[in-house]
Amino acid sequence: MDGLAERQLQSVDEVVATAGAAGIEVWLRGGWAMDFHLGRVTRPHVDVDWYCWRADVDRLAASLTGRGWQPDPRMPAEVQLDLFWDDVEVSFAYLAQDAGGKVTVGAGPWAGTQLPTGMLDGPPGRIGSHTAPVISVAAQIEFKEMFPVWMPERPRRPKDADDLARLRASFIA
């Protein structure tokens, strides 16, 4: 495992501890969610992707910036929270709930769109001594399958196809 991956794993620990101390729920998504589900680092990652409730983002941002994280000035905070510490980047996509209590996209052009049922009900993931809440494997698969449909200008990358194969194999096992 390279140095960046180690620093990203340390950032996962810090986000989990900091959010937990503030009573804020967070869930890994993307490549790191898959790796925590599988129990190993499968490939290099550019950043660490998370979900958090839109209502908690101000407290989460204050907690993390109070620990030295810096906002990414390139990204609009009304769509998601993007922070960095040296070469480690983290992003928090926002969640909300509709009138019926279903989990929805919390901001941006798809705000209010329902997300997969049970997405937040997956068991925590683990890589060695690192533990974190992760979105469900079924939701991870759905997102990887649908991303190029939802955003046709961004076709499936080879790493996405590899991730889908890994997730499907683990889901059946």
TrEMBL record:
Alphabetical list of InterPro entries matching this protein: Aminoglyc_AdlTrfase
Q: Which UniProt keywords apply?
A: Nucleotidyltransferase, Transferase
- Kindly indicate whether the keyword Nucleotidyltransferase belongs to this entry: yes
Any single Pfam family the record assigns to this protein = Aminoglyc_resit
Q: Which GO terms describe its molecular function?
A: nucleotidyltransferase activity
* Domain of life of the source: Bacteria
Q: What's the protein here called?
A: Aminoglycoside-2''-adenylyltransferase
